[in-house]
Write a structure and sequence with these properties.
alpha+beta, 9 helices, 10 strands, 30% helix, globular
């Protein structure tokens, strides 16, 4: 049986992350306070282009990089070959889910007595499988080939986490492009409120190619390879690796990072000049929906 529906406050009880220049929440906060530039120059040897740009632009050779730390083989009972077939996004998310649950106060995340749901997203780009000879595996080791396909396909991210952690709540992969991680959190809040689970692991991972890209006119990439949020000098964004997990619950906890009072999702539909151009009206609408869900007025929000 699942828990009864609730409108108890949903709290962020645990967090874990791997971002460029930061392997913990505290470290990220310190780097942000210091105003550190967390992007790195790509080695000239990488060469080539990702094909994500177009004609008439400069090449951006900077990126926010996260090192693949691998996975704790002893903890999960994996062989080195099995860990390699798992894929970097699965490996990183598995470790972060374990770490975030411990941060939330669960000393042994694999001994959870509560129903725990998983709502995550991933990139699952073809370059992540470059270190595997899939043709050889397909021909000589069909079981290993199947494991590699599962390990590098975003469709299995949630199921793999639930399997290794022994979680019995809903396990869903949420893919809505740039908004995927935030929508995953909204899905987790809705699941908690509906009584589908007592704890929700939400977040995502994305690892991009280590290669320069084209900053062509009309694209989102910063030609100088520098992100300048909210500045008139800003010319775009820069690719980066990253992964983060939050643990949500409506249970009473000893401490919480934050309370999630309201969530909302919507879509621009055709109310915009082009597919990748956000709609101002839809942005206003979704904020109003979230305020309504929280029972708050806009004047009560100060940041």
């Amino acid at each position: 049986l699942t828990p009864a529906p609730t409108r108890e406050p949903v709290v962020v009880a645990g967090m874990a992350l791997r971002l460029p220049g930061a392997s913990s929440v505290d470290e990220l906060w310190r780097r942000l306070q210091a105003g550190d530039d967390l992007l790195e120059a790509l080695p000239a040897a990488t060469g080539g282009k990702s094909g994500m740009g177009g004609k008439g632009g400069a090449s951006v050779a900077r990126k926010g990089q996260v090192q693949d730390e691998g996975v704790d083989l002893a903890l999960w009972g994996l062989s080195p070959a099995a860990a390699q077939r798992m894929g970097v996004e699965q490996r990183v998310l598995l470790g972060l889910a374990y770490e975030a649950l411990q941060d939330a106060g669960f000393a042994d995340p694999r001994a959870l007595s509560a129903r725990c749901g998983v709502f995550v997203c991933g990139g699952s780009l073809p370059h992540l499988r470059a270190d595997l000879d899939l043709d050889d595996l397909r021909a000589h080791a069909p079981v290993a080939y199947w494991e590699a396909e599962i390990g590098h396909d975003k469709d299995y991210l949630a199921g793999v986490l639930a399997y290794h952690l022994g979680l019995t709540g809903p396990a869903e992969v949420v893919q809505t492009a740039c908004s995927s991680s935030l929508v995953a959190i909204a899905r987790g809040v809705h699941a908690l409120r509906a009584g589908l689970c007592e704890i929700a692991i939400c977040g995502g991972a994305s690892f991009s190619p280590d290669a320069p890209i084209d900053a062509a006119d009309g694209m989102i990439w910063a030609a100088d390879g520098v992100c300048r949020p909210f500045s008139d000098a800003g010319s775009g964004t820069v690719p980066a690796d990253g992964a983060a997990i939050v643990v949500l619950t409506a249970r009473r906890v000893a401490r919480a990072y934050a309370v999630v009072e309201g969530v909302a999702t919507n879509n621009d539909g055709a109310r915009k000049g082009g597919f990748s151009q956000p709609s101002e009206a839809a942005q206003v609408e979704v904020m109003r929906l979230a305020l309504h869900d929280a029972g708050r007025r806009a004047a009560e929000i100060d940041y």
